[in-house]
Amino acid sequence: MKRFFLYSVAYLMCATAVLFLFREHPNYQIWDAGRRTAKTMIAFVHYLPYIIGGFIVLYLISKQLFSKKTLAEMGWAFAGCLVFSSAFTFMKTSLPYIIPFYADPLFADIDKALHGGVDPWVFTHSFAQYLNADLISVLYFAIWGLPAAFFPFLLAATDNDANRKARFLLLFGFVWIGLGNFLAYMGSSVGPVYYDRLIGGERFADLILALETSGITGTHIGTVQYGLWKVFTEHTQMVGSGISAFPSVHNGVATLVMLYLWERSKWLAPVGIAFSAAILFASVYVGWHYAIDGYVSIILVTAVWYGLRKALPDGKTAPSKPCKTPELEGALA
């Protein structure tokens, strides 16, 4: 996990360089991001009792979990997660300054063609009367957000298989950097909810009305969607800000979680599948993504996982001897 932290620092350095190369007033952008981040962290203080309670439960279940080595790994992982998220934000918010949003008409047309001439959001909102907007908001942010931000920390705390940890840390990096940076730059797009604001016209006017009618606009999702557009138009940034539809990091993370649960236990596999399916549905339902954003993410993450699994097969415990591919085994451990 120390290497994960060091790689996260290197990623932050690259992201900062991108900020200075492509953004106006980069020093202000960094200061503004720090200010907004501090404000956000203060807002999450009320979650502290739940976090402490969770650790107490884990300690009671297995005191071995809190060995000196494991605690050290957890510390490196936690620090790495914080640095990594800051780096990703700098990269994501710089996207339209490097490659302006251009691909939305193409993705919207592909989406419609793939679903029989109907925009996928129409199908999802046919279930609106059975869905609770607040629960969708909790799923899309709180439940998804924990593994999205702290998956390496969870690995350090609960997994003693060195190869599996290395494999999923590499996959975590692919989701955020491969999908969320490189492919996002290639398919620079804002998604259905911002389509009309960016391009003009009323192609997704009915979607906006559906979001209001279903109650999504009045949830935290609606607040964040408004805030992200405000940050974009005002050329500022904060941790978690930035607009990018293709491919979907939300679905990439959900697929990562599904595959990890699948590997850990056959009993957890259905939970992972349900979670991934729910995030795919929600990403279209709330208007953040075209369905194709999710399809591409699921296919690519699964393909990379399959390749990594061949290169780094499971071991029952952390091996005491070097494996046949030590350069991969220790890639991010």
In short:
With 333 residues, the chain is an all-alpha fold. Helix content is 73%, strand content 0%.
Helix content bin: over 70%
Described by the principal axes of the CA atoms, the overall outline is globular
Structural class: mainly alpha
Low-confidence runs of at least 5 consecutive residues: 316-333
H/I helix tally? 15
If you had to describe this structure to a student in words, what would you say it looks like?
- The chain contains 15 helices and no strands.
- The longest helix is centred in the first third of the chain and has 31 residues, at 68-98.
- Helix 1 (2-22) runs parallel beside helix 4, helix 8 (162-186) packs antiparallel against helix 14 (291-311) and helix 12 (249-264) packs antiparallel against helix 13.
- With 333 residues, the chain is an all-alpha fold.
- The model is unreliable at 316-333 (pLDDT under 50).
What would the keywords be for this entry?
333 residues, mainly alpha, 15 helices, 0% strand, globular, disordered C terminus
Chain-wise SSE layout:
Layout: H1 2-22, H2 26-43, H3 48-61, H4 68-98, H5 104-114, H6 120-125, H7 133-158, H8 162-186, H9 192-199, H10 205-214, H11 220-234, H12 249-264, H13 269-285, H14 291-311, H15 326-329
Helix pairs in contact: 1-4, 4-7, 4-8, 7-8, 7-12, 7-13, 8-12, 8-14, 12-13, 12-14
